[in-house]
Write a structure and sequence with these properties.
This protein is 89% helix and 0% strand. It contains 3 helices and no strands. Helix 1 crosses helix 2 (25-36). The chain crosses the membrane at residues 6-23, 43-61.
Length: 62
């Protein structure tokens, strides 16, 4: 993997992360408020799950 591919991947993450607040700010705000109510363990679980899903997708695509 070269540096250009890494930067392109990071840029795509930013685009995807920005979609919900751009398209539906009230919905994003409600979702963010729900996340604030979660425990650290719950947030870590979702973080781990998203990392594993990303790794599996990368493995399948390469």
């Amino acid at each position: 993997m070269d540096a250009d591919t890494l930067w392109a991947a990071l840029a795509l993450v930013l685009v995807i992360e920005g979609l919900l607040p751009f398209l539906s700010p009230p919905r994003w705000r409600r979702m963010f408020e729900q996340i604030l109510q979660m425990t650290d363990g719950q947030i870590r679980f979702f973080g781990l799950g998203s990392m594993l899903l990303g790794l599996i997708l990368l493995w399948l695509l390469t």
